[in-house]
Each structure stands twice: as structure tokens, then as C-alpha cells.
Design a protein that fits this description.
Length: 667
């Protein structure tokens, strides 16, 4: 998206000499008044210099989001006097005729026409809001909530394309319906007392920032097509629901709301990008725009710290697309608005951002297959929005997606004019490397090289990651295109899904040890550490220390060793070794969503879509027993049911080893 200043067609008639002199004289007076009024504080009157983000961050107050005086001064020479223009308004027919003729424009218009008779689905009753809040039930609220935003976006762009007033009645109806909502936040993001619904506080969440963004987009693009009264109401609502709420939180005037401003998760980038869009496009107060930009830069320092220096995203590929996509949209906003003088595409660490942008490609076990660590998914749905992939291809040379699937109108307006440069229909297959090591977070992906590859992804990590699971030492084993054993992924987002005690989120529901009946503890200090690695053409090996993940004082040593043997049909071994100062109960587990058969006390057969793996179980230090049970979680994002096959010593041990050997079953 480029900042565009359009000149509409105008006719020039005869101008007399006296009139010309008068116009020149008045123009000179205006220029002198302008210079006097704005002086050196007006960035257009002095040379702009690019912001050194590293110096900007170093000048800030430790832990503060709202910029201090030094930071504000660094921004004043950069931020324009005028508001941000995300795209030309409806009066620029050249722009909108071209957009309407594009495939993306045709899609928006078609979908808008199909929905033009549909009434808004908000406000939703207080009863349903409270029920959704109490039950964690997203289905009774979220779809209606987001469909309303999506349709309004379509109507706005369709009206800009057609310019025939066909969509204006519905646009006004939808805007008024949104402004009639007591709360713009999703009920799951209100507190248990529903204080946002009750009007006791204002906060911005993933949905509220979108409502604000869409109303700001309507006001900016449609201009006088909307009535003066409606535009005034929009301005007032955006002021208190978005601008004031954000700046109060940044100043610590309202520390309980908008805590995401210091988050390292997708919430920060998503909420910040939508909030900043609203403030920059609607606020006439330049100082507030400067403060909002400064706050956003400080906030993004927190967000980017959530990625490993190796580019690893603990939230997984789905949240990488959502969170990093909105970060890149924020970067585009600020780059365009300041004529390139604020560059979040490099921030203060271009090497790290390059790695973050290429994370999905490097994280694959096999093409299109990922480890579902934390709340990640095994596959990214085709047909889902992929803005982050487009922007990563554009700015970081990442692999081009086959096409562009839009999610939000503001993002579509960035890429529509040159989308073909960053998509590629006929993809050239590039083999993945035999092994990828994210050494900061301690993630190893060892890819089998057989005709049907046998591969493993295993993590050290820590137990305070974004969308955290207690999963230090967790792994997944893939045979061909199917995951057969290991991490079962996340529980679906219903009431109790984010509880540390949820069996699919605690270490009980992961293929990791259980010691003296205790599971892994939560916190960044409860971590794993990779002690050694060896990657060769025929074998990948690693050993990690997972003792720090447990609060069991008797543990003297607890290691997990892995080997992926790549010769022949391949085999993968997982070996846990414990030493303790006193006898402790000890066991590990096989987790699976596959069919399985316990053949005997030392053999299990796993079967996923006809692909079979034999698991041979051996131990030293005591006798082993096997006990399988269904994971008591009804709704898993990867399907289900899932099973935990516990493998435990029958008696406490002071030293012991349990080894699992996975190998293909030949037909």
C-alpha cells in the first residue's frame, strides 16, 4: 500500500490579472501564517530522518509502554501533520475502478451482493453474552459477532467499487448496530462479573479492535456519503472505546485493561495493529497519534521477544500467521504513513525477523505437516487467510504461496495491486533439509530419508511459552504424511480449555515422564536443556536434561535421549534415564490418536491410515507394566479420541531406564 494523494478532474476558466495578483498576495499571507502556526514542529518544514529503533528503545524508561519525552521528541520530526490515509476515498474513481476490475475486487463485490439483504447479527442479547462468558461457549456468540464485521467490510468496499449508493443503507444499519452494542469484546474476554458489559470499564480485545478498525475504515473511505451525525457518533465511540482506552493503558492509568500491551503472544500484535489503524485514521490530535505510535513501538518490543532468536514461534504456525501477519500489517501502516522513516520490517534486529518470517517453512516435518506443540496445529488449512505468507514473501524472500486468501479488507488493500508478484501457482518442490535445529528454544526436527520417511520433532522449551502446555520433552513421530505417536495437540476452546489442569494441557497428556505421581510444574524456570547433538547422514542423536521441569527433590538426574536411525526402513528410539537420592515411582507414556494394539508387555502396534509402527519397550532397574486409558477430554482440535499408554516401573526405583523403539511394520 502506498500513500496516495489524488487530484480529481477540475476545470480552469479565465483568470484576470487583478485576480491573479490578489490570489498571489493571499497565498503568500497564508504561507507566512502556516509557517508561523506550525514552525519547526511541523515535520513537513524540516528534513525527516529515519527512526533508529534501537536508539529509540534504549532511550525509553524500563518497562514503560507510553513513550517518554525523549522518545516523543524522536517521533515528532517523523510523524506527519495529517491523519493516515489507508487508501483513496470513494471519490477517487480511478483507484476504485481498478480495484473493482481486479479478481479480489470482483470477489468482494460478489460476496457483498450475496449478503446485502442480510441484517446485522449484533447486538446479541445480554443473556447470550453472559452464558457465553460463563460456559466459555464460543459457538453461540463468536460466529455472529465476526460475521457482522465481515459483512460490513464487504459492504464498504462494494460501495467504493460501485459508487451507486446501493450498499449505503446497510452500511448505516450495520454501523448503528455495532455502536448499539454495550460491549465490543467477546464474552470470553470479559471478566466473570461481566464488567465490560455492565459499562464499568472499557477494554480492547481481538474483536473490539476489529469493530473499531471497520468503523474507522467506513468513515475514512466513504467520507460525506455518511451523514454528518453518523460520522460524529463514530468519532465519539472510537474515541472512548479505542483511543482513550489504549492511551490510558499505555500510561498505566488503567493497568487492569489491555494487559496485552506487554504480551509476547499474538494478542499484542493483533490488538495493536487494529488500535493504531483506528487512532491514525480518525484522531485529529497529532500528539495522540505520536503517543500511540510510540506506545506501539515499545509494545512490539515485547511481542517480538516472544520469538526465539532462531525464529521459533512457540504458538505454532496458525498463530504465527495470525500474530505475525498483523505485525507485518502494522509495519506497513507505519512505513507508509511516515514515508519509510519508521521501519518495523527490520525493527532493531533484521536477522531475527528474517528467521521469524521463514519459520513455517523451516518448521515442517514434511511438506505441510507440523508438530502440534502448544496450541499449534498439524496442518494449515488450505483456503484460510495467508496474509503473513504473502508479506513474508514480499519483504523477506520467503516461499511464495499459491494464491492470496484475504481475511481483512485493510490487508487486501495493501496487496491487491501487485499480488501476482508474491504468489506462485506452479510450485517447485524444494526438499527439506535432513534436520532443523532451533537452538534457542531447543527444538529439533529430524527428517527421515526413506521412501516412506520416519521422522521426529522433539522439544526442550519451557513451561511458560505462549499458549503454554506443560510439555518439556514432548515429541511427535511421523511416518510418511501421518503423525502416529506423540503430542496430541490442544483441547478445543471451550470452558476449561486453558486450565493448567486440563489433561490435554498438563504433562499428564504428553509423552513425558511422571515421577512420584507428580507432573511438570509451570513457569519459565521449569525447562529443558539440550546437552548434546549429533547430526549425520545416517543418524541424528540428541540428549536433553529435563530434570528442571519437575519439582521432585529426590531427582539427581533425569535425561531424555533420542536417536533417529535413517538407514534401511528407519527406527526412532526414546530413552529416559533417572537417578534419584531415594526410591521414586517412575514412568513415561505413549500418547496417540491412532488405533493401537497391546501385543504383549513389551510390544505395541500403532496403526494410522494403514501405516503401522511397532513400539518395542525395554527397561533396566525394575519390572515394567503397561496401562492404557482414554484421555478424558471430549473435544480436541486434532480430533480424537486420544489415548495415554502409561509405561511404569512396578516399584519405586533409585535408578532406572525406559526405552521405546519405534520402527515400521513391513507388510
Amino acid at each position: 500500500m502506498n500513500r496516495i494523494i489524488s487530484l480529481d478532474k477540475a476545470g480552469f476558466g479565465y483568470i484576470s490579472g487583478k485576480s491573479l495578483i490578489r490570489m498571489f498576495f493571499l497565498g503568500a499571507l497564508f504561507l507566512l501564517a502556516f509557517i508561523s502556526a506550525y514552525g519547526a514542529d511541523n515535520p513537513s518544514e524540516k528534513e525527516k530522518t529515519s527512526l533508529d529503533i534501537r536508539a529509540y528503545l534504549e532511550a525509553g524508561d524500563k518497562g514503560a509502554i507510553y513513550p517518554n519525552k525523549i522518545q516523543l521528541e524522536m517521533l515528532r520530526s517523523i510523524v506527519p501533520a495529517e491523519r493516515f490515509q489507508p487508501a483513496p476515498s470513494i471519490i477517487n474513481r480511478n483507484y476504485w475502478d481498478k480495484f473493482g476490475a481486479s479478481e479480489l475486487g470482483k470477489k468482494y463485490l460478489k460476496e457483498a451482493l450475496n449478503a446485502v439483504e442480510t441484517e446485522p447479527e449484533v447486538p446479541i442479547s445480554d443473556e447470550i453474552y453472559r452464558r457465553a462468558n460463563k460456559e466459555g461457549n464460543r459457538k453461540i456468540y463468536k460466529p455472529r459477532y465476526y460475521r457482522t464485521m465481515d459483512r460490513l467490510e464487504h459492504f464498504i468496499l462494494a460501495e467504493c467499487i460501485t459508487n451507486n449508493a446501493k450498499f449505503l443503507p446497510q452500511i448505516e444499519t450495520y454501523i448503528r448496530a455495532i455502536m448499539d452494542m454495550k460491549s465490543w469484546v467477546h464474552p470470553n474476554h470479559d471478566d466473570s462479573e461481566n464488567t465490560v458489559l455492565e459499562g464499568k470499564r472499557v477494554t480492547i480485545d481481538l474483536g473490539a479492535r476489529k469493530f473499531g478498525l471497520v468503523l474507522a475504515l467506513a468513515d475514512e473511505l466513504l467520507e460525506d456519503k455518511l451523514s454528518a451525525g453518523l460520522r460524529k457518533e463514530i468519532s465519539e465511540q472510537l474515541q472512548w472505546r479505542i483511543t482513550d482506552s489504549y492511551l490510558k493503558s499505555a500510561r498505566e492509568d488503567d493497568p487492569e485493561s489491555n494487559k496485552w500491551i506487554r504480551s509476547t503472544s499474538n494478542w499484542n500484535s493483533v490488538c495493536t495493529s487494529g488500535t493504531l489503524f483506528t487512532i491514525l485514521t480518525t484522531s485529529e490530535d497529532r500528539e495522540k497519534r505520536i503517543a500511540a505510535i510510540g506506545s506501539a513501538i515499545n509494545s512490539m518490543d515485547y511481542y517480538l521477544s516472544g520469538f526465539g532468536e532462531d525464529g521459533y514461534c512457540s504458538e505454532g504456525t496458525g498463530y504465527w500467521n495470525y500474530g505475525f501477519g498483523h505485525y507485518l500489517y502494522l509495519a506497513e501502516i507505519l512505513y507508509d504513513y511516515t514515508d519509510g522513516n519508521i521501519d518495523l520490517f527490520t525493527f532493531d534486529n533484521p536477522e531475527k525477523l528474517q528467521k521469524v518470517a521463514n519459520f513455517p517453512e523451516n518448521y515442517q516435518i514434511h511438506p505441510g505437516l507440523y508438530a502440534p506443540f502448544s496450541d499449534g496445529v498439524t496442518r494449515v488449512k488450505k483456503g484460510g487467510d495467508n496474509f503473513a505468507y504473502i508479506m513474508a514473501a514480499k519483504y523477506y524472500g520467503a516461499k511464495k504461496p499459491e494464491n492470496f486468501v484475504s481475511d481483512e479488507a485493510v490487508q487486501s488493500l495493501i496487496v491487491w495491486s501487485d499480488i501476482e508478484k508474491y504468489t506462485q501457482q506452479d510450485q517447485d518442490y524444494s526438499p527439506l533439509p535432513p534436520v532443523t535445529y532451533f537452538d534457542d528454544y531447543g527444538i529439533v526436527i529430524s527428517r527421515g530419508q526413506q521412501r516412506i520417511p520416519l521422522s521426529i520433532a522433539i522439544k526442550a522449551g519451557h513451561n511458560a511459552e505462549n499458549h503454554n502446555h506443560s510439555d518439556v520433552g514432548s515429541y511427535v513421530i511421523a511416518y510418511g504424511d501421518d503423525i502416529v505417536s506423540g503430542d496430541i495437540g490442544a483441547p478445543s476452546y471451550i470452558a476449561g480449555a486453558f486450565s493448567e489442569d486440563n489433561p490435554a494441557r498438563s504433562s499428564w497428556g504428553h509423552p513425558v515422564p511422571k515421577i512420584n505421581g507428580k507432573l511438570q510444574s509451570n513457569g519459565k524456570e521449569f525447562r529443558g536443556e539440550i546437552l548434546s547433538t549429533s547430526f549425520t547422514a545416517t543418524s541424528d542423536k540428541l540428549t536433553m536434561n529435563i530434570e528442571p521441569a519437575y519439582e521432585v527433590p529426590q531427582i539427581k538426574k533425569l535425561t531424555r535421549s533420542v536417536e533417529n536411525t535413517k538407514s534401511g526402513d528407519g527406527s526412532i528410539s526414546i530413552e529416559d534415564h533417572i537417578q534419584a537420592s531415594a526410591p521414586v515411582s517412575f514412568g513415561m507414556a505413549i500418547m496417540t490418536l491412532s488405533e493401537y494394539e497391546i501385543v504383549d508387555p513389551n510390544t505395541i502396534i500403532l496403526n494410522e491410515n494403514g501405516q503401522k509402527l511397532k513400539v518395542s519397550i525395554t527397561g533396566s532397574g525394575g519390572k515394567l507394566k503397561i496401562q492404557d486409558e482414554k484421555v478424558p477430554v471430549e473435544h480436541l482440535r486434532e480430533g480424537g479420541p486420544a489415548f495415554r499408554i502409561g509405561i511404569d516401573f512396578t516399584r519405586p526405583v533409585t535408578e532406572g531406564t525406559i526405552k521405546l523403539q519405534y520402527e515400521p511394520v513391513k507388510n
